[in-house]
Amino acid sequence: MPRKNHSRTRRKNRGRFGPLFKLLCALAVVIALTMGATVFFQVETIAVTGNSRYSQQEVIEASGIQIGDNLYRMNKYQIGNQVLQRLPYVEQILIRRSLPSTIVITVSEWDAVAQILPPEPGAAAAGEAEQPAEDPEAGASGSQEAAPQAASESWLISVGGKLLEPAPAGSDAIEVTGLTALAPEAGTMLVIPEAEQPRLDALLDLLATLEEMEAADRVSSIQLSDTQVKLHYLERFEVKMPLNADFSYKLRVLEQAVAKAEEEFGSQASGTMDLTQQDYAAVYSPD
């Protein structure tokens, strides 16, 4: 009888410690896998694809990835943001692991499609007149933050509005006026006064449409106001469009109007194309 009780007690103990044993086994497996990943999955090769403006070494240095780093301990999101900040012309970046020891970095790069010209001396930004005057006492006490400074030089931007770098002399990027770049910094998005936001929205929409239609090289300048967009098109036409226009439709109308003008007045026809009229798709006034 005592022997039977002893056997029952041992079975109870095994049942009590069974879950703990399973948990310890699971922890042991996790630790083994982690140690294995640390020891065996180390970076030996870094491959870069899709780059043209930046060299492979520039991309690798911007990523911060080094030979010997662990493949599974690196933060790909953080690395990607770091590259986008340090290399302004990078549009997108994809980082993937190729076991057992390779990191593949794939980048796509922006083109400098436009340049934001600095405002004319003495010109006020849109809506600047409505800004309240600074309180001299507040300024003296330092409790009021200084307003961001407007750019004093032209800045290249991507089709998505990312600041790339100061425009070099002789740049053939589309010249844009009517926007005020505030405290520009390469690798960041273009910041403008709040009152100019509708202009910026229209510009980005127009640039995206021009790129989609492969027509950006036909436009040399864009002038933005609170109600209109003016284009210098094919170096021969001044084109007026509403600020909130459907640019895809308007540009198709413009192509047809230019073709008709050239058919009637010759291949070097020039003048003004007004696409702001409600009763007419386009009104052509030859020079």
Task: Give the structure's gist in a few sentences.
The chain has 287 residues and is an alpha/beta fold.
List the main descriptive attributes of the protein structure presented here:
alpha/beta, 3-stranded mixed beta sheet, 6 helices, 34% helix, elongated
Structural class: alpha/beta
Question: Order of helices and strands, N to C?
Answer: HEHHEEEHEEEHEEEHEE
Nearest-integer average pLDDT: 86
Low-confidence stretches: 129-134, 138-143
Instruction: State the helix count.
Output: 6
Proportion in helices: 25-40%
Structure commentary:
The chain is an alpha/beta fold and 287 residues long. Helices cover 34% and strands 22% of the residues. It has six helices and twelve strands. The protein has helices at 2-40, 56-63, 76-86, 136-141, 197-212, 247-265, and strands at 45-49, 90-98, 102-109, 114-116, 155-157, 163-166, 174-177, 219-224, 228-233, 237-242, 271-274, 283-286. It is elongated. The N and C termini lie far apart (119 Å).
Tell me the layout of helices and strands.
Blueprint: H1 2-40, E1 45-49, H2 56-63, H3 76-86, E2 90-98, E3 102-109, E4 114-116, H4 136-141, E5 155-157, E6 163-166, E7 174-177, H5 197-212, E8 219-224, E9 228-233, E10 237-242, H6 247-265, E11 271-274, E12 283-286
Parallel strand pairs: 1-3, 4-7, 7-8, 10-11
Antiparallel strand pairs: 2-3, 4-5, 5-6, 8-9, 9-10, 11-12
